[in-house]
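Hello Y.,

Per our agreement to keep a running log of every chain we model this quarter, I'm adding this entry. I've kept the format consistent with earlier entries: sequence first, then predicted structure.
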Amino acid sequence: MKNVFLNLVKLLILCISCIGIFSCASPSQTTSSSAQTNSFQVITGTIHYPNTIYFPSKIRIEITLSSLDNATMTEKTLAVQNIRNPQKFPVNFTLRYDEREIVSSETHHIYVEIFQENTDTPYLTSIRKYPVNLFGPASSGSIQIDLVTVATVP
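Predicted structure for the entry above:
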């Protein structure tokens, strides 16, 4: 009986020690988790629809942030936001991107495409790729995007 009681006490001490060890986080773990939560930045903007074009009821807006490597001329998508069936224009958007993917030697752009339901070909797109400054104090601004019809090839 005495051995059973002694074994239970040892087990209890072992459990309490394990809980104490695993519940404490080291400073390096705390620093890395806070760095991960702070690595995302936001770009906001407004998309304007041309008044001369019919506005269908079921559309999808795709906003894309991309980077262009000026040395190799390769483009990489950094973030995409889809907005389905907006009720009216202008449409405000918030695009969240990982700041660790931003390279200062690359050029960054935002462009918008609008698709009708069940199609993969856009019928409206932004006039151009809008350059975006993702460095310094001007990086937290808002962008206004105008749309035009996509020219179809006969």
